[in-house]
Design goal:
- The protein is an alpha+beta fold.
- The protein contains 12 helices and 28 strands.
- Strand 18 and strand 19 form a beta hairpin.
- It is globular.
């Protein structure tokens, strides 16, 4: 009986096991079917879109070969630039300024200026076999002595051929022949997403001829210079660019120059994936003029303009970048061609404006005497005018401004600092989240290549409350104090950051 009972239990266990397997399999098939139904009901397209149908597995090796080949070909044309400068800075800054202890530490010591030597580091690229080198203006600006270190380690004295602060391009020369030189690319070949390599000496002399890779993140990054009326046009890249890379070349995978590295956007002082380069067409135009004449001539249209309002764009069916003329300078090229106040410029040489700043950028790229076709909309009627451009003075760039101002003495002095300023009004203080009782001038724009941005840490939206230890209540106060400062002298500036509580002190040097 015991054996029979044991066999019965074993049989039941076997039946239960087989039954479980059956239901598990059936359930799995059932849920698989349901999953197929769910997938089908929410399916995404299998074709089209951005998918690439075929990829050559050898392309990875080919890309690596391209990188190494370009690096080997271009590196001998890349140089390190060492700039010796004499600067003046306060010999003593009172750490107790603004406190009850200020008088104990103030006095003559706080006002004394002491000269001392600094050694700047930058990069450059050889563009002719007879020793001509392109770099950034801010690399060589104010240098007492310049030396160039070649790829082979030899060092040579250099002289400045010409500089252009507006484009931040400079040409220097060493007395050496038979040098390797870089080839120039074309702006028409620059495309967003293409691979590029950045060359230079980031952060240290020991890191010369470093190479980083990235892509073109954007083209046509237009930045207004504020009151000066000028517009800079940059290539944006994520190739690593750091201090010391300034003036080095940005090249494509054919070894051709597509830009000169000039600035970074950063909140830390170092690389954060956003770098800017002067486009090759600007580099070529400026450097050729500097080599030929030592100066740069730019065309002048002779208008003040602003971006057309959204309401006007909708009402007249204008392109998004349309520019409305506010002022026409009497006797200027615009005046002689028949452009009137209130006209809306919609296209240049038949190409619609995508950004109103393209007007200044395009004109600045032309030379006096050249003719440009300008399409305008006048109260709903479109017409095209041929304009023979005039010449811009040293203080002007392409127009008289994009904000309806004429670029007088005040604008010129702030242009030298790389700042655009405006009196802080109660309404503007509210917009910045500040008390309405605060007085000063607000920074409305900062040149990314300026000392104010790079060294002093001044940013858009900050409030200047003191200049040279004197209170500043409005723009007129700033101008009056600044006029009394000698060229080349370094002065203190107290600022308040609207985004962070409290204030801080920095220093600026008045351009000579």
């Amino acid at each position: 009986m015991r054996i029979a009972r044991t066999l019965s239990v074993a049989a039941l266990l076997i039946v239960a096991f087989l039954t479980g397997v059956f239901f598990t399999t059936a359930g799995a098939n059932l849920f698989d079917g349901a999953r197929d139904v769910i997938t089908a009901s929410h399916a995404f397209p299998d074709e089209g879109g951005t998918a690439i149908d075929e990829i050559d597995l050898n392309s990875v090796a080919a890309l690596e070969d391209a990188f190494t080949t370009v690096a080997e070909r271009v590196n001998p044309t890349v140089v390190q630039i060492l700039a010796e400068k004499t600067v003046s800075r306060p010999s003593f800054v009172n750490p107790f300024e603004g406190t009850p202890f200020e008088d104990f530490f103030g006095g003559p010591m706080g006002e004394r200026q002491q000269p001392f030597q600094t050694r700047g580091l930058g990069s450059g690229v050889i563009v002719r076999e007879d020793g001509y080198i392109i770099t950034n203006n801010h690399v060589v600006d104010g240098a007492d002595e310049l030396s160039v270190r070649l790829f082979d380690g030899t060092e040579h004295e250099a002289e400045v051929v010409g500089t252009d602060a507006f484009s931040d391009i400079a040409v220097i020369r060493i007395q050496v022949d038979d040098l390797p030189y870089i080839s120039f690319g074309s702006k028409e070949d620059i495309r967003v997403g293409q691979w590029v390599l950045a060359f230079g000496s980031p952060l240290s002399e020991e890191l010369s001829n470093s190479v980083t890779a990235g892509i073109i993140s954007a083209v046509g990054r237009l930045t207004s210079s504020g009151n000066s009326g000028g517009v800079q046009n940059y290539i944006q890249t994520d190739a690593a660019i750091n201090p010391g890379n300034s003036g080095g070349p940005l090249v494509d995978l054919r070894g051709r120059l597509v830009g000169i590295n000039t600035a970074i956007y950063t909140r830390t002082g170092g690389y954060q994936g956003i770098g800017f380069a002067v486009p090759v067409d600007v580099v070529r135009n400026v450097s050729e003029q500097l080599i030929e004449n030592g100066t740069v001539q730019r065309a002048r249209l002779g208008v003040q303009y602003t971006a057309a309002s959204e309401a006007l764009i909708r009402a007249l069916d204008l392109p998004q970048g349309a520019a409305q003329v506010r002022v026409v300078v009497p006797g200027s090229a615009a005046d002689e061609a028949g452009i009137q106040e209130g006209d809306v410029i919609v296209a240049l040489n038949g190409k619609p404006l995508r950004n109103s700043l393209e007007l200044s950028d395009t004109i600045a790229g032309l030379r006096p005497g050249q003719t440009i076709s300008i399409t305008i909309n006048r109260e709903g009627e479109e017409m095209t005018l041929d304009v023979r451009l005039g010449a811009a003075s040293d203080e002007e760039t392409a127009g008289l401004g994009t904000n309806g101002r004429s670029g007088g003495d005040a604008e010129s002095m702030m242009e030298g600092l790389g700042l655009s300023l405006s009196t802080l009004t109660p309404d503007l203080a509210r917009q910045l989240g500040l008390e309405e009782t605060i007085e000063g001038v607000v920074v409305t724009n900062v040149e990314p290549t300026s000392e104010a941005y790079r060294d002093a840490g001044i940013r858009r939206g900050m409030i200047i409350t003191e200049v040279d230890r004197k209170p500043v209540k409005n723009l007129q106060d700033f101008q009056a104090i600044y006029r009394e400062i000698e060229p080349g002298e370094t002065f203190l500036v107290r600022l308040r950051d609207a985004q962070n509580a409290g204030s801080f002190i920095t220093a600026l040097t008045k351009p000579e």
